[in-house]
Structure formats: C-alpha cells, structure tokens
Automatic annotation (TrEMBL):
Location of this chain's protein in the cell: Membrane
Major localization class: membrane
Protein name listed in UniProt: Sugar phosphate transporter domain-containing protein
Keyword line: Membrane, Transmembrane, Transmembrane helix
GO cellular component: membrane
Amino acid sequence: MCISATAARALKSVLQGILLSFEGEKLNSMNLLLYMAPLAVVFLLPATLIMEENVVGITLALARDDSKIIWYLLFNSALAYFVNLTNFLVTKHTSALTLQVLGNAKGAVAVVVSILIFRNPVSVTGMLGYALTVFGVILYSEAKKRSK
C-alpha cells in the first residue's frame, strides 16, 4: 500500500506539472485546483464514509456539544486549500521532482519536531531512514546547483 500510495502521489505531481506547463492550454494553479478539488471529493468522500464508521453522526454530535468544531473544520479546510494551492505553485515554478523532494524533507522535519516536542521514541532503523532522506535532499540540492 505504501509503495502504491507513493507511486500515486508521484503520478499526481507529474500530471499537475504537465498540466501547469503544457503549451497548448496552460492552466494556472487556481484553475487546476478548481478541477481537481471536486475529483478529490468524489473519490475521498465515499472512502471516508465506508472506512470511518458513523463519521457523520460523530461530527454532528461534536458540533452539538461544542460549536467551535465548525470553526475548526472551516479553518482546516482553508489550510488544506492553501496547501494545495502552494503545491501547485511550487510545481509550476520548479518541477514535480522538486515537490516530491520537498515533501520528503518536510516529513523528516516533522519527525524531528515530533521527537523534540513530544519525546516520541525512534528506532535505529527509523533514524537511518530519516538520515538517508536528509542525505538524499542534500544530494538533490547540490545536483540542482551544479546543473545551473
């Protein structure tokens, strides 16, 4: 599942890179987001309703108990919108590969922050994996500098 999810993420990045730079019909980041968001809802909403038992009932119960949950959901939706827009802008101005490398770097940084703040334990294998990720990001950065 992890390999297929990584391959799907990479395919999405490559396709959005092609769509954002295709000479025949150039899309800007806002238009691409306009087309991709409804597709995401069509695929993710049924999966959520199937995999998350009674998610609608739980959300409604939370909203009845604390009306701030609606504001939290709206804030989370706005953040997701800006994350997607930023991803499209990064892809347009750099490349799909750069977006993937940045995503891996972000994951390594999130783990370090998690260790520092929450004192989460990390195995030796995990440390080696994160070190390899950081090393790969550094190599990619150096390769980009040399190619210019």
